[in-house]
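Methods, example record. To illustrate the input and output format used throughout this study, we show the complete record for ABC transporter permease. The sequence lines were provided to the predictor; the line carrying structure tokens was produced by it.
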Amino acid sequence: MTPGRAAGAVLRYTALAAVLGFFALPLLWLAFAPFDRDPSVAASLPRFTLDNFRELLDNENALRSLRNSLLLAAGTGGIVVAFAASAAYALSRVRLPGRDALLYALLLLSSIVTGTAAMVPLFNLAYELDLIDSRLGVILVLSGGLLPSAIFILKDFTDTTPRSYEESARVFGASPLQIVTHIVVPLIRPGLATIAVWSVAQVWGNFLIPFLLLRSPEKSPAAVVMYTFYTEGGQPDLALISTFSLLYSLPVVAMFLFVSSRYGFRFHGGIKH
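The corresponding predicted structure is encoded as:
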């Protein structure tokens, strides 16, 4: 290697290390601050203590908000996976005029008209349906926003599933429901797992929609309750925030690692012809 190439390689790796270090600092703070007696905004070696976790466990709002987040995430994830799988299978197997154009239009509109931009009509709709301060209302709004992208992703998994499997099952007398449950669903299982984790992650970190639609503090999810952790002097309670953030991030990370190790976390699918 010539001196010029060696110097270029050193500069590239130095720049890469600097970028990685920049993005790693928040993760280091999240790893160390919950175990620090007096955490600050700077990442430093902690003076080890578990009092922050004891204080968090004594906080009823924190634990209740995690349960609320779990309910919202599970409800939304279940609806998105079930409806997206049904719609993706129908769009993949039934030839409809303008099918692909409709699918791309839904995906485009869901990207442009986000939950923030559509929040006023969504709020009015929830009010007219008496879904204000209702977990069901939040679940339905979140599910509607996630479904177009989920259908688009799952359709790719369904398209790559050989139709010969379904035709063989029909020859042996399988019903349409049996074909879907016993043949199609097992074949697109990696896609279903990917959509499930993606949906849960989207709901888990969503602040705006639960904040606007839920009025009762006991129904607020973790993303909303986290913004209430202040000291009596009005300063952010970094000990409680960092500890809660660490516990708050663990479920999604665990789901991602499980799906990645079991199926491979990917947004394209399945079995090639």
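Annotations derived from this record:
The chain has twelve helices and no strands.
The mean pLDDT is 82.
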